[in-house]
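Regression test attached.
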Amino acid sequence: MESGSLRKYSNFSEWYDYVVEAADIIDKRYPVKGMLVWKPYGYKALKLSMRILENLLEEYGHEEAYFPMLVPEEVFAKEKDFLEGFSGETFVVERTIRKVLMRKFLLRPTSETVMYYMFSLWIQSYKDLPIKLFQTVNVFRYETEHTRPILRVREIIMFNEAHTAHESLEDANKQIKEAIEIYKKFFDSLGLSYLILKTPKWDTFAGAEYNFDFFEIMPDKRAIELGSVINLGQKFAKAFDIKYQKRDGSYEYVYQTCYGVSERVIGVLISVHGDDRGIIFPAHIAPIQVIIIPIPYKGSEEAVFKKCDDILLKLKQNGIRARIDKTENTPGEKYYYWELRGVPVRVEIGPRDVRNNTVTLVRRDTLKRMVVKDEELLPKLNELFKEIFDNLKKKSWEWLNQNIHTASSVEEAKEIYREKQGIIKVPWCGRDECGQKIEEATELEGLGHDPEEKAEGACVICGKEAKWYFYIGKKY
Amino acid sequence: MESGSLRKYSNFSEWYDYVVEAADIIDKRYPVKGMLVWKPYGYKALKLSMRILENLLEEYGHEEAYFPMLVPEEVFAKEKDFLEGFSGETFVVERTIRKVLMRKFLLRPTSETVMYYMFSLWIQSYKDLPIKLFQTVNVFRYETEHTRPILRVREIIMFNEAHTAHESLEDANKQIKEAIEIYKKFFDSLGLSYLILKTPKWDTFAGAEYNFDFFEIMPDKRAIELGSVINLGQKFAKAFDIKYQKRDGSYEYVYQTCYGVSERVIGVLISVHGDDRGIIFPAHIAPIQVIIIPIPYKGSEEAVFKKCDDILLKLKQNGIRARIDKTENTPGEKYYYWELRGVPVRVEIGPRDVRNNTVTLVRRDTLKRMVVKDEELLPKLNELFKEIFDNLKKKSWEWLNQNIHTASSVEEAKEIYREKQGIIKVPWCGRDECGQKIEEATELEGLGHDPEEKAEGACVICGKEAKWYFYIGKKY
């Protein structure tokens, strides 16, 4: 693809595939469909992001653990809905190169079964509750559909999955609220907008009571799930026999929740914050926060490079991830290169900057250029980092809000979708039957409803008084 | 096992199995042999340790990346010695639950093949060199021998593997020196002693030119490999066709190295630093650095607990990982519990401490007790952390040195081994033939030699002038 021809909104698919590879996020030439190599630049952004979530989980009392990747078949099969839900996409190990094994092992597609087998050994009394654990691991899903780099893959390399167990349904419900709060803070910290919806019953996670999904809208106006928060009720507790002795001496099954986020969040962040020039990283997750470009003229080379080195040192000493581009490319080529990679601030240093004790700054989001005195560089950078972040966040919320439309009939929903895509909400009586009919009639997918948002008007299917809005659209 | 009956040196195997489980490092009840659940306490220590290595690698110019876990069979099979070396222990995926796949995939036992496939795409010119990458990932080896928790497992959950590519053999040799320097710093930072030996040719890593191993001696006096540094020469470059264009326009295969360390290091650390009461963690990798034990007497409860809370807050504000044990156990039970878990410093707070504005400190390694003024707590803790670390490190070097013995004949070596075990070094002419005969005659395993250590005397097999000492012993 030609550099000048990138068009994020009009040709998102091409934009995305080009950018994630050209900007050194991933390499999709690894010879297995749906499995990617993460290059250092992309991996750094992913790690910085995931660490924010891990720290949040710890602040909220979760502890990090590790459970094995291979699940014995008999453990995997204990909860029937789960088995059914994942059996289409789970890889099997039944041999080594030289030898057939006595048992079959499954590559975890998610870790409920592995963890809950252990929970049944760990939990005896109410004193052992609550348990709040998480792990960040690779999981495997044989996606038969169209794979997409980072967004839909067969090896999810950083699945952050939290799993909890509680004394009562009430405690589990509280935990769901806490999980939603944590995820809100996490996506807020990445400047992403989101819609939180209760999943239609017929799409609920295998083995769960109910779940909430966080959705963002991608530049092609399709909805994408950012994370999932699931109330498992007692189904797994019963399947794995996770009982505890209550204060009164009687026994009860525990109540469980789980919630997960993956590297997909970086794919979404790149898509939502980027522009026609490429990625725009918020500074706190940018692998390189400041790129210094020397602009030497004949005779000034030494002074310019020396100043670049001085500035680099100063930035590093102040904890800023900075680098100088000393390649032989022209300044214009360097601008293009680092803009594509989303470095939030560029520092240009030429002979005039040397003479005047100034530096020239260019912020990545607006490309606005400004000259500041050397001694103002650090406070100015911090100011710019904040402004860029605020700007990205504001834009992402505007994008989400302008792509959610209300319709009061099936026909209107179809018409709006034809014209504008995005997410449509329609009044709904709340019954599964009508929800499924909305999906059929509009040929769109149900994303769920917001239980706290009262609807106005009549259910677009049965005409009875609407309880909620049912959100529909096309999903990744 | 009874608490009082722990004997690290006289019954190491029992000590180890008990401690790693009772101290909440791992749970070995996961129903697959050689695969463990890492509990939060153990996982934290592991992560803190591994982060030291990751930071060191980055300081030395390595970048972190991620390569897929599943390796297509045809990629895995490209280097014949490697294939042969790992085919006995590599798991295979050839199906999902519902479907047979078109190709076979192998679970990485280590990532040479995955990475070098990509290197061949990335490296064109000398400008692309050197490449210095690492990743910390789970790898899988079907160990047929006796598995041991953490030390010999079938899923290695944190394999830190670095892989480099260079223009010349000289550069690769320099890289080996750098890797050894990095590993020395890493093991030094954990207070572990080590012996660095060049591996006997007949035991060299599949596909490699030569390698160096770091060995520690365990409490049962068997040698254990802590890490491996490997010069791969051009064998993989030839197998994967990794060529670069030189400055003069001609083409050459790259020269490669790789080096790896795993969670085994924590198993060794627990073993070497521990005592009959359990683990002793150096403070910088201790999941909990200070445990506060309230010693309330009737009437003083409120004041004692308040002071405990105040001290906890103060410690946390100063970045110390601290906790109060508020369980209903007796103080004695609490001491036992946290000593087993290796918390470096215990703070006891009783009514007298409240009255006198003091705290009572007990250091885990010597169990020495001391009373300090409240305002001296922080500097005293830092001092104790340092003293404990220095003491552990000193002891570990003493242990290593006192368990390396010199013998000047096969008979003497056998006799010393019968009496003292440990590692024996014998003068050796340097020829493979004699090295292998030493192994046979002593019924011990060859660990290698130190090329910088000149031997005195005659080769114990052929009687010719000795070039080096050949180190022998029993390995994990």
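Expected vs. actual: identical. The domain at 404-473 of chain B is CATH 3.30.110.30 (Translation Initiation Factor IF3).
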